[in-house]
Write a structure and sequence with these properties.
The chain is an alpha/beta fold. The chain has one domain (2-228): Class I glutamine amidotransferase (GATase) domain (Rossmann fold, 3-Layer(aba) Sandwich). The chain has six helices and nine strands; from the N terminus they run E-H-E-E-H-E-H-E-E-E-E-E-H-H-H.
Length: 231
């Protein structure tokens, strides 16, 4: 099976997603939009992973490649491919499903609790009732029509959603590793303006290995869910 991922910024790589895909037999390919790389044929992939980035899905004037990316995401979803979106990736999925993406009432940066909602049935991916997750976002999205909301946080009502059994969007970053966190803090330190849900660099980088491990288990569960329904 082939997993292809979209990377929008050098600081926002696959993190814990990569070893899981490798351990489960996926061939891994990538399009790095910041390096002007080409898109694959959507029929040649089994799983599409859309990573985060500092831009907005609404920034087509500054990032014209967003038009091509959105078209690809739309095609992948309509073709029944498994699609996982992280942060910007979740916003892009929501956008291509007809939902509005807009500034959230609060920026949410650092380690904050996400509260999983009771699924309607056992066919829905289930998040823990409460789990501390890594966040770095200033925008949010409306829940797409036909999607199930999977989680919320104090700062953001739509933290995760699912459409059917093959499309999952996560506003938070369960793939985050200490190395990626350090890279994002270094690249985006200007965003760490004191606010209710914005932590300091020191707070962000002081997370324990156990905290990362618990979060990675959630990431692994989401990947396993999509893999199960893709085979």
């Amino acid at each position: 099976m082939r997993a292809h991922y979209f990377q929008h910024d050098p600081a926002e790589g696959l993190g814990s997603i990569e070893p899981w895909l490798q351990a489960n037999g996926y061939q891994l390919t990538c399009t790095r939009f910041f390096a002007a790389e080409e898109l694959p044929n959507p029929q040649d992939i089994d799983l599409l992973v859309i990573m985060g980035g500092p831009m907005s899905v609404n920034d087509e004037a500054n990032h014209p490649w967003l038009v091509r990316e959105k078209q690809f995401v739309r095609t992948a979803i309509k073709s029944g491919k498994s699609v996982l979106g992280i942060c910007l990736g979740a916003q892009m999925i929501a956008c291509e499903l007809g939902a509005r993406v807009f500034p959230n009432r609060e920026k949410e940066i650092g380690w904050h609790s996400v509260h999983g909602l009771t699924p309607a049935d056992d066919s829905t991916f289930s998040l823990p009732p409460s789990q501390t997750m890594f966040h770095w976002h200033g925008e949010t999205f409306e829940l797409p029509r036909g999607a199930t909301r999977l989680a919320r946080s104090e700062a953001c009502e739509n933290q995760a959603f699912q459409l059917g059994r093959r499309v999952i969007g996560l506003q938070f970053h369960p793939e985050m590793t200490p190395g990626l966190a350090a890279a994002i803090v270094a690249a985006c330190s200007d965003e760490l303006v004191p606010a209710k849900y914005v932590q300091t660099a020191e707070e962000i980088l002081s997370a324990s290995q156990e905290q990362y491990q618990a979060m990675h288990e959630v990431m692994d569960s989401a990947l396993a869910y999509l893999h199960q329904h893709n085979t």
